[in-house]
Amino acid sequence: MQKVAIIGCGAYMDSGYGCPGEWRCLKAAAMGEGKFEEASAVVAFVKCECPGRSLAPNTGMAIKLSEVKPDAIYISSCMANAKPACPYASAEEMAKILQDKTGVPVILGTHDYK
Ligand code: SF4
Fold it and tell me: Is the minimum distance from the CB of 20 to ligand 1 under 6 angstroms?
């Protein structure tokens, strides 16, 4: 079973319109659905906070403190496909920053649930 970290958009999570941490990302990981090619253990769930500067260091700290290096980092579907988009950085830019910081491959999106 692969180990994964998931990143959620804090601005969206705080709005209460179906937070990425509510169930969709977690169900997709558990069931191996959506962007997850196999059932996956979520070893970290990190909340991005505007303007996003803390995301990479917080993710690095979560990996360090948990002492579990994930096989992949998933940027939640709500964050990767946000409309309107994040005003600070594209999901691709966020993914590159995360990948450069952690050395872990980053995948855009988690699930296709409505
Ligand atoms: S910086 Fe962008 S992705 Fe991060 S919480 Fe703010 S709006 Fe969401």
Answer: no
